[in-house]
Amino acid sequence: MMTQKKIPVRLPVGAVMVLGFFLTILLGFLLLLMPVSQKEPVSIVDLFFVATSAVCVTGLTPVDISQVFSVFGQTVIMFLFQVGGLGFAVIVVFVLYAVSSTNFSVKNLVRESLGFSPSAKIGRILKYTLLSTLTIEFIGALLLFLSFRKIFPLGKAIYNSVFHSISAYNNAGFDLFSTSLVSFNQNPLVLITVAVLIILGGIGYIVYYDLLMYRKKKHLSLHSKIVFLMTGLLLVTGTVILKLTENESWLISFFHSVSCRTAGFFASDLTLLSSPGILIMIFLMFIGASPGSTGGGLKTTTFYSILFSTTKIFRGGNTTVFNRTISKDSITKAFGLFSLALAIIICAFFFLTVTENASFEALLFETVSAYATVGLTVGVTPNLTLWGKIIIICVMFIGRVGAISIITSISYNHTEIKYPDERVCIG
């Protein structure tokens, strides 16, 4: 009697990632739905909104989590944005390699999409990422505790320190103070600690691994050099412009320049922002953090590639920086991601103008904040309609997993037919 050999069903890698994030959100939603998680009744939509925001490390929330959720519920939220942040960098690598362990081309694609060299060892990456994350979060919690212990009872000071350190490093932006860090806007230790945690989380594990391998290679990769250059440039530019446009101190201007690039903490009332201040924040939010990090947005290296390759398109020649040429494939992907991000933001913004009663700039701010998983709001989120909440939920989810699912979904082997080239009039 012959037995049929079962052929394993292999989902596309992108589908695995989308499903994984959705199931994590669903688990968080079910945990928050439990009576032990709530101090006050919360609607089903709001619970799903908070769960999505936490897993996507966004920070937008229609309710005050410090008031409506119990300590257990707040801990669930903390667990979700730790998984959403750490999981993005670590579990993504693990899952992608697990589902495609026999496909050499997919392995190379995974390495390329996450920025690792062909010689990078996954075991070392996972170990170093986990250790560096826990170490940085622990040090951040200790520094925050130095301030919080003077304000809160010991137990609450410890809990708040751990919660906000994890939230900051994962660029989540969730807080337990109702008004974010406004009450600490005169506390340099808190603001600088949170800002440094945000920066470290937004630089990306690819850069960390590159620094780890520096002793052997004696040089940094082009990726790391661009990340450091763009991070410094955006921080300085954002700080100076916010200082000039808003009546705030240099410290708060610096903090907002850091936070609006995917973290979502704020140290002053954002509803009082001037129009130029809102525009520069939208610009910084759209660019976001760096690849392989806990942050979102278009990404620093993508923006850099687009910016410099655009000048080369009209002048001719290769896109060269730091004595290296950015590959045409990378530039093509950068323009593709830019077009996709712009299309999603425009569509979501249009639908919000239909469903919500708010100004154009406020709705655009909210849309970009959701897509780039920033979490800043100028007062729109708490007043969203049911359809508005559904739109923002979708935008947060797409902003977090969209790029990964697109990159990994092209791993199918297919035959491409080559047709003759023909010029098209442009402009």
From TrEMBL:
Alphabetically ordered keywords of this record: Cell membrane, Ion transport, Membrane, Transmembrane, Transmembrane helix, Transport
Topology versus the membrane: Multi-pass membrane protein
Transmembrane segments: 12-36, 42-63, 75-99, 125-146, 158-177, 189-214, 226-245, 265-289, 334-354, 386-410
Keyword Transmembrane helix found: yes
Highest taxon of the lineage: Bacteria
GO terms under biological process: metal ion transport
Subcellular locations according to the entry: Cell membrane
Record GO cellular component, one term: plasma membrane
Pfam families: TrkH (PF02386)
Keyword Nucleus: no
UniProt GO molecular function: monoatomic cation transmembrane transporter activity
Record-linked InterPro entries: Cat_transpt
Protein name as annotated: ATPase
